[in-house]
């Protein structure tokens, strides 16, 4: 959430220009520029949704897809240590998505109380 807000504060064009410059010669700008414009919005929206626990499944899915895209870009750049960190984040995101139905302390469970098979509430 705060990464996305930070990108808006520092300037969206600066961030997109830096991404385009970083990937020049490795990926076409036609692929980099739309994804670079999408990143701050996706980070902010998914972070707010996960933090509030509102539409948690959608927020976790969005953040997982974003992490996969970012990891792909880091593999292209050859930044192995950061790829390892992102894979850890993807694993945590997957576990959270796996157990999202058991989340009792969220706005989702307050508004839509799903019954989880095998568990008593």
List the helices and strands and how they pair.
Elements: H1 2-10, H2 12-22, H3 29-52, H4 56-77, H5 80-98, H6 107-111
Helix pairs in contact: 1-3, 2-3, 3-4, 4-5
Short description:
By secondary structure, the chain is an all-alpha fold. Helix content is 74%, strand content 0%. It has one domain (2-111).
Question: What does this protein structure show overall?
Answer:
The chain is mainly α and 121 residues long. The chain has one domain. The chain has six helices and no strands. The radius of gyration is 17 Å and the shape is globular. The two termini are 31 Å apart. The mean pLDDT is 88.
Strand content is: under 5%
Number of helices: 6
Order of helices and strands: HHHHHH
Poorly predicted tracts of residues: none
Mean pLDDT, as a whole number?
A: 88
- What is the total tally of β strands? 0
Radius of gyration: 17 Å
Question: How far is the N terminus from the C terminus?
Answer: 31 Å
Which oligomerization state do the chains in this entry correspond to? single chain
Key terms:
121 residues; globular; mainly alpha
